[in-house]
Specification:
The complex is a heterodimer. Chain A contains 2 helices and 10 strands; from the N terminus they run αβββββββαβββ. Chain A is an alpha+beta fold. Chain A is flat and about 80 Å long. The relative contact order of chain A is 0.19. By secondary structure, chain B is mainly alpha-helical. Classes of the chains: A alpha+beta, B mainly alpha. Chains A and B meet through helix 1, strand 9 and strand 10 of A and helix 8, helix 9, helix 11, helix 12 and helix 13 of B.
Amino acid sequence: MVETHDDLRPLYRIMLVLGLVSVVILASGFALLLRFAPPGQHSGYRAHITGVYAYDPATASITGSAMTRFHRDQPFAATVDWGNLPAGMLVSARWTDSLDDDVGSTQPTPVAAGRLAGENALVPVRASREFGTNLPGPYTLTVVRYARGQPVELLATARVTVLRDP
Amino acid sequence: MIQQAAYRRRWRPTRYWLAAMIAAALFVVLVLSSVASLAIGPVPLRATLFGLPGVGFVIAATFFALRALHDHEPGIRLRDATRAAALFVVGIFLWLAVVDVYTFTQEAGPGVATACAIACVPTTAIGLLVIRRFDRNEKEPWRLVLVAALWGAVISTSLVVWAEGLWDLVFTATLVPGPAADTSAAYSAGIFEELAKGTAVVLLYLVMRDEVDDVVDGIVYGAAVGLGFNFMESVAYMTHQYAILAPVGLGAAGAAGQWYFRQVVGLFFGHATFTALIGAGIGIARQMPLISQRLLVTASGFLAAIAAHFAWDAWQAFVLVGSSSTQLLVANARYVLVIGPFAAVVLLLLVMGQHVEGRALRRHLEVEAAGGLGAVLPYEVALLMSPWQRFQARLAALARGGPGAYLGLARLQRAQLHLAMERWHRERREIDQPLAAEEALRQHVLELRG
């Protein structure tokens, strides 16, 4: 340190301590990442999202051909080939909208893929209660595998767009 | 004259070369980013029409650069090279501004984007005014503060778009949605955004070291870059919210909500705090005698900024999870709880830095006054050390001799403090210019005194 009347060592030390604290923060973030995405969870399976279709809530069935763009007042649902997955595998599928809010899922809790295959379960998007229609923007479907009560592996994703104009 | 006299150093070209290498690397990244914007991004080809002025500046810069290479007279060569550099920088800024505007605001259209930008101007301006006043003794020149903010708004945002997009594609999109993906995204934002902003402070330090005196100046420039980045990000989020919620009649409310959180609550508790930490590290490094100390403290500043940004993005969802009736209160309190500790450290460093700087300047002003050379008179020391007394003296000059007297006294006060600052750096062996430089500054003060 240069010999002068003023001493910058306290400033220097505060920055070094802050740097050390920062390393701890970033390391704890990595621990969080490992906690929610534990390594060694790769099952080797991929879910097959066969398509996203216009959906009739009254009959709980899909119509027409697969599409990637929908109008705001047009309900839609995804079909997944659940039979492609082991029957005992616990899975869940959910839609998130352009604000990253959950807007539809298979079941509130994960269920066995075999049961979903038996029911030929669809993954519909429910229109917002507040607005009555879907919000515009990208919608993302994720199919996730669960183990020990938490999601551990991403099995498939799909994305469609809800147009601004109805 | 002052800068040339006081700050020319034998090793200065090393810093310039380092700055040039960083700038060249950034330029390559920005060109790739820009080409990608046109090829696969949301920027339509017609955007190039609006970017033509930028292209024109680059052509003019090329002309002057070639002429500088051809000139044999050093004076003319330097003038042409300076013109070329200035035109080149302006051209790049213009072009990237066009790309940014299309990338960030195209969803809601130009009218809404303009309204959002206008709404963010007063708050960002207030932010810049406040942080510039942090420097009680020797305020940073507006042109550099604005360049720092412009860098944050235009260059840094351009740099991060594609880096974050690539990270998302390679890492985040492969993770389970929820805390894991959120943490990955937080790493991406923390690392890339802080590196992009911090580069501005590093370049400013390398090119204009005479304007980055200590930790206080570092905090001012760092926060200015952060405020610029926050400006562009606010406009992007406001237009995004508007585009999504406008069809259900809530577009303006959505944009207003984003404005409130990013331009009011988060104006200082956000990017300004993060990048101020980088600036603090660089400011302290500027006064460290050993290269190892400089590198360590600069790295600490970057780490602190990345960690603060990461903590905000990754953990805010877990802090103060309240019911819907208390959501607004919770949303406000999160800023204080998550970013507050980092902002407190910035304030602590600022106050300590002001104390060290103030003590040093007073001591050197007193020594200068005692020397009897006339640049600083004994009764002026207390006045120069108080921003309020300096302002009162300028007001008195205004009353006596009008605006000319006010500005003249302001220049004199600035030059006197500059002289004291130069003496301080000399005492700390932070400059290696001979005493003649100090004498040149003294003569300048005497000329201003008339």
